[in-house]
Specification:
The chain is built from 14 helices and no strands. 63% of the residues lie in helices and 0% in strands. The longest helix has 20 residues. The protein has one domain: Catalytic domain of cyclic nucleotide phosphodiesterase 4b2b, CATH 1.10.1300. The mean pLDDT is 96.
Length: 299
Amino acid sequence: MDFNKLTHIIEGSLDGTPLDEILYLAEKTCPSIDLGLLQEVHSDLTSFFSGSCPDFKKNTLPYHNLRHSQLVVLASARLFHGLHCSHVRIRPEILFKGLLAAYFHDTGMLLQQDDPTRSGTKYMANHEARSILFLSKYAAQKGFKEDISRDCATIINYTDLESDPATFDYHPHEIQLAGQVIGSADLLAQMADRYYLECLPLLFNEQETGGVNQHKSARELMEHTEKFYHNVVLKRLTTTFSKTSQAMQAHFWERYKIDRNLYIENIDNNINYLNNIIAKCDGIDCLERHLKRIPPKTT
């Protein structure tokens, strides 16, 4: 299969849009799920990020943007579908809670209309708590049952890189699995993105402005990316999240008859290319000359 077709597959745009694919996989996983409600959530989150909702200002963060959130939801839907294909029972309530948490997991960096802060990076540290607050308000406005807010809060906390789910308050195995799915999807969707390398300087700028950066420069962040993947990401995927990400291969086989985990392949390709250009470049200008893809503009 050619590179362009694989790219369209992983971005959910082969036969439509990411939303089309999310809805298709949700129905395949749980035929009784309310697709209209999922569409409503998708539309509402789009309005939050675009600023068309009166409660929020338009998002200006170039890395933690709407596209990232939607790709995390897509990766989550794929993992749920892969688990279903592996004969793991996914109830529609759990699927909805997981996807709802995925949609909201980074909303904590959005600015409210009356917020005097100029950038959402102010809320980058511990933004998960603010995301949970926004989801709780949204769930109340929609009249959702109380357990949706409670369980989605737990699921969102799985996306916190500093978190240890073993220390969380007791929650059912189904919510644990949903948390492992969303936590895995958040990591996979970012690092497998075809624009991931081009976005690393944008991530550095966000972290620096938000006061959470652990690197002196964008180049240093790039140099440490491979170590971050092997020491942090893979540890969470395999140990913290119990290898739930392996369900991605079952999804791609069932959906496209591709017996591969395209996310892990893309991550490996990104890191290999990054290492190659780091070895030949002394400065960030040289690195940027080798990173020619222009990330799509999105809110």
